[in-house]
Design brief:
- The chain is α+β, with helices and mostly antiparallel strands.
- Helices cover 49% and strands 24% of the residues.
- The strands form two sheets. Strands 2-3-1-6-7 form a five-stranded mixed sheet, sandwiched between helices. It has a two-stranded antiparallel ribbon with strand order 4-5.
- 35% of the residues are buried.
Length: 148
């Protein structure tokens, strides 16, 4: 519902709409070393952190595995990059207590925006995912904005 409304608003009124995709860095190692229960605790803590830091109008969603998306209505890409960097820092500061150990992790982010000519939110997701891939390739624990 939120997603459709945000897209329709961006299409009809030309309001900005930004999207950040994030992926926990080396999450497989957490699952392999400490077990899936510990990995699940990290994912729950990540979701809580994202929800605490975002506005009520923003949409935070788990896309699958350790990948999340944050949709930011009425947000220019430049601001979304700043928000994503704040989220990145918050993730790096998380300490997740598990029975086995206190776990820390980092995340990589890709940011894109709804562009003139876009008619589907999938276009924004594809570009944000490409930027996320660049963030991973550039060393992880960073934010990359999609550029043509």
């Amino acid at each position: 519902l939120h997603l459709g409304f945000a897209v329709q608003r961006a299409l009809r009124y030309g309001t900005p709409l930004a999207l950040a995709m994030l992926d926990l860095d080396h999450f497989k190692q957490i699952n392999d070393t400490y077990g899936h229960d510990a990995g699940d605790l990290v994912l729950v803590r990540l979701a809580e952190t994202l929800h605490q830091l975002m506005r009520e109008v923003d949409v935070v969603a788990r896309m699958g595995g350790e990948e999340f998306a944050v949709l930011m209505p009425d947000t220019q890409a430049e601001v979304a990059v700043q928000v994503a960097d704040r989220l990145r820092q918050a993730v790096a500061e998380m300490a997740v207590e598990t029975p086995a150990a206190t776990l820390r992790c980092t995340a990589s982010f890709g940011v894109s925006e709804f562009l003139p000519g876009d008619s589907r939110i999938q276009d924004v997701f594809v570009r944000a995912d490409q930027a996320l891939y660049r963030a991973k390739q550039a060393g992880r624990n960073r934010v990359e904005r999609w550029r043509a």
